[in-house]
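Section 3.1: Structural characterization of target chains.
Under the original work plan, the team committed to producing a structural model for every single-chain target entering the pipeline before any wet-lab resources were allocated. The record below documents one such target. The sequence was received from the expression subgroup and is listed exactly as submitted; it comprises 289 residues.
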Amino acid sequence: MAMEIFTVGRGQEGYPERLMPFADMPSRLFVRGALPADEQKTAAIVGARICTAYGKSQAAFFAQVLAANGVAVISGLACGIDAAAHEGALRGKGKTFAVLGCGVDICYPKQNYPLMRRMLENGGGVLSEFPPGAEPLPWHFPIRNRVISALADVVLVIEAKEKSGSLITADYALEQGKTVFALPGRTTDATSRGCNRLIAQGAEIAISPETILEELGVKKAGTKRAAPRPRYGKEAEMVLKTLAAEPQNLAQLAGSTGIPLQELTGILLALEIDGVIAENPPGVYMALS
């Protein structure tokens, strides 16, 4: 993936118009790939690195629907919610962009390199205020969050603990006059406490992707006749067959199928995005007819 790095300075042609109203934005950006088009609607989807399968599936689902309706998805390429949002946007055949807390010549975390490559190959980009070679230092991430929110027309927080970097992004968004949405969750779930608190403080409830499209003034594309269910690999078909017999939680599925947990969560996410299974209630998976 050899893609040249370019820089654009504040006030120069190509510098994002969305950043211009705010005095604390970077004086220059380092970019690989592309920047979000000024005329395209954008939504930031952020959340916890250590998240639930439900959170991942919802991040991917919201991103997929938004991207399919022409909305560019902004996030931070972190593990967990960020990666699921980028992945969902790609599944929706849309463009997705990552604001990094390191140089754009570094993929952090390393395991997201294949994802970053596909983002670039599909017309998206990665950008940073930190020069090439800059390491992903802890203090870089809170300040890059102001760029994530500034690039977005709306911000959606999927899962966040009470003290979370995602809440920093939400705070920046509110200061910038952006609408903040939060996905509600169970009061007993640590990863939902931050979102529930945002809602209590006045954030919009993310009931569905359509609520965000409505906020953006985007009319949802007409639905097409459902395509036949795709054929999956051996492991995914095994999961579908097992869930068709009875709903199961993750531990039960792992025991029933013998599929390692890490691989199983990826399979479940893909099946849920395709609409052939659902998590209902949270933590329990069922096949859809």
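The mean pLDDT is 91.
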